Amino acid sequence: MARATIWDPGNPKSLEEMRKKTYVVHAADGSAFPAEPIETGTYWGDHYFSDVVFPASVGPMGYASFVVEEAPFAGTHPDR
Fold it and tell me: pLDDT for 33-75, tens place per residue?
């Protein structure tokens, strides 16, 4: 599993708006899967963040690339 922090996506106006956001992760091999938010909060009153986790595989060189997009997940979850 990988954990990433997303800061101020789409310039949210409130913590409630931030909590409603959903994210999709795109891997280098073309696969896409949902990111699961595990924490949402604010710093300095107007900077919002979401910590998300998602399944990740790392190749033999020890790194991998992913793109996190703010969007609803429209596919089939990889575990189902």
Answer: 999 999 999 988 789 999 999 999 888 888 899 999 998 887 7
- For residue 59, what are the β-bridge partners? none
Alpha-carbon distance values, 70 to 60, 61, 63 (Å)? 29, 29, 23
CA distance 73 to 22: 8
- Closest by Cα among 12, 4, 2 to 48: 12
What residues does each domain of the chain span? Answer: 2-70
pTM of the predicted model as reported, rounded to 2 decimal places? 0.80
Q: How many whole angstroms from its chain centre is CA 37? A: 7
Q: Is 56 left (phi over 0), alpha (psi -120 to 50) or beta?
A: beta
